[in-house]
Amino acid sequence: MFAPKLNPNQPNERLDVAPVLIVGAGPTGLAAAMSLSRAHIPVRLIDKAREPSRYSRAIGIQARTLELFEQHRIVKPFLELGHRARVANLYSNGQRLARLDFDPLQTRYPYLLFLDQSQTERILTDHLVSFDVRIERGVELIDLTQGSAGVQATLRDATGHEELLRPSYVIAADGAHSFVRHRLEVGFDGKTFEQTFLLADVQADSDWPEDEFHIFASGEGLAALFPMGNDRARLIADLSAPAASAAQGKSGPSIEECRALVERRVHHRVTLSDLTWSSYFRLNARMVDRLRKDRVFLAGDAAHVHSPAGAQGMNTGIQEALNLGWKIARMLAGGAPDRLLDTYHTERHPIERDVLRQSSMLMQMAGAEHGPMKLMRDHVMPALAAIGPLRDAMRRTVSELSINYRKSPLTLERLLDGGPRAGERAPDARVHVIDGPLGRLPGVGCLYDLHDPCCFSLFLLVSPTGEDDIALAPATITLAHAVSGDPDLDGLAQSIAEIFTDAVRIWRITDTRGEGANSLTDNYGRTRPAFYLVRPDGYIAARGRAPSDVHALLRHCELWFGAPDAEAERQASEREYRED
């Protein structure tokens, strides 16, 4: 068994550092608070609204976000309250162009989960209470400055009382009209035209299956109906310029207006009734030119706004928060150089750019009456969707399972026989635990149950027989060889534990057989012995063989995740890394 000192318990108390100030208690801000609090970093979470909003425009939770919620041990209430849609239907002028089925996705969540954003916020808020974190409502950030001494924030509460705060960092999750972004004069580039959208929660009577959603494109614009369960649906549609002008000053459309729009754009029998809520919202397609300015970071709608096409916005913000949270936590724990925080922009900005580009193109295609965009919508898209590999790519893109950081400087990639590459998401797998931290006894489990998002996980993959080919080894074969240990893996575990101190958990695992779940070999390849280092946000930082790639892994971890050394040594290590 590994000595317990290699994987000590995380401290129960918070680190003695200045809190991270999170501005905005929407899904992005709440996710950032969750990530930091789990890593024992103190936070102040403020929102100028005195009460949470009862209604909101974001309803779709993608498979990748659900995987991350599972790793944070909070996915259950989402699944209990949400409505699962497994099929997307795309139409043009009433003719179905494509049917995209999510069932083939290699995930425990092969669907799009529809749940009102207000419920998402409530679940996250309740979860934060377990970390003794509560939203400070009615508290507004009124000034923010940065200098050589750090960052200084002035807060004002509902009574008018002002407080001067010196946080360690600031995360701006304060929406499309972000005060922080304006205060820092960060560029917000994009298209200047404004889009107006209609939202409505209605009873929708049709003969469609409850687990399918429908998106209709026509020369007039886009209309989409998303099932919310119990025959209720969310209607989303963009408005033409005349309709948008007519909507000025109105809080939301009436049921008659919703019916008229559906009649024009949805060429299918749908009867709307019982309008419980409706609204208009307007936005530009824009994004910031940088996500970090010294000790301040932008995330969510404060960093990017775009059309709701594809249900990507809220998910993108949540995943940004989880990407940033562990990096700030690692920095404040004294275990990493400051440039680790620069990789937040390096990794997430290209993803934001792709989301903005894709959503804008979908909106242009949806409203095209003629020209190349109409040709692409009516002819090119159906042809592409009929090609198996391209259809797989489409469903992985929509579900956000294809998001990766392969080009990030934080990744160390070595060739293995199969398995996910460094920078890609770590998939779940059924494994046999031979040895683990905290006195974990051997047994069968899932990799996601082993990974703790407050720290790194080092998975050491070994063969139960000592042979290279384990695919034919029965699950009942003795584990005596694996338990006896491997000097190279034991040395790697010791060295990694010293670099990460209390920020890594080390698991020695091997294959098992079980119905209904992919094996370790299926999802992580056949190379044995091998290692996978998984980041707190569930992406693979490094992979390789033992012992040939062990030295490269140690250099990589010292360079990016270890305590800062003297500058000369740091530059020498970086040069060596680049030349490798």
Task: Looking at this protein, list some descriptive labels.
FAD/NAD(P)-binding domain, 17 helices, six-stranded mixed sheet, 3 domains, Alpha-Beta Plaits, Glutaredoxin, 580 residues, alpha+beta, disordered C terminus
Notes on the protein architecture:
With 580 residues, the protein is an alpha+beta fold. It has 3 domains: 14-59 and 116-191 and 285-366, FAD/NAD(P)-binding domain, CATH 3.50.50; 195-283, Alpha-Beta Plaits; 430-579, Glutaredoxin. The chain contains 17 helices and 28 strands. It has a 7-stranded mixed beta sheet, sandwiched between helices. Helix 1 (27-38) packs parallel to helix 4 (117-129), helix 14 runs parallel beside helix 16 and helix 16 packs across helix 17. The protein is globular. The protein starts with 19 loop residues before the first strand and ends with a helix. Residues 1-12, 466-484 and 566-580 have low confidence and may be disordered.
Structural class: alpha+beta
Find the CATH superfamily of the largest domain.
Answer: FAD/NAD(P)-binding domain
Strand tally is 28
The share of residues in extended strands comes to: 25-35%
Shape from CA axes? globular
Unreliable stretches, pLDDT < 50, 5 or more residues? 1-12, 466-484, 566-580
What is the fold named in CATH at topology level of the largest domain? FAD/NAD(P)-binding domain
Give the tally of structural domains: 3
The CATH level-2 architecture of the largest domain is identified as 3-Layer(bba) Sandwich
Largest sheet: 7 strands, mixed
What is the class of the largest domain in the CATH system?
A: Alpha Beta
> Strands across the major sheet, in which order?
6-5-15-16-17-14-18
Helix tally equals 17
Helix content: 25-40%
Distance between the termini: 33 Å
What Rg do the Cα atoms give? 25 Å
Average pLDDT confidence is: 86
